[in-house]
Amino acid sequence: MADKPVKMTVNKAKIAIIQGDITRQATDAIVNAANSSLMGGGGVDGAIHRAGGPAILEECKQIVARQGRLPTGRAVITTGGNLPSRHVIHTVGPVWHGGNKGEEELLESAYRESLKVAAKNNLTSVSFPSVSTGAFGYPVELAATTAINTVLAFLRRKETSLREVVFVLFDSRTYETYAKALKEVTV
Ligand code: ADP
Question: What CATH architecture does domain 6-183 belong to?
Answer without folding.
Answer: 3-Layer(aba) Sandwich (3.40)
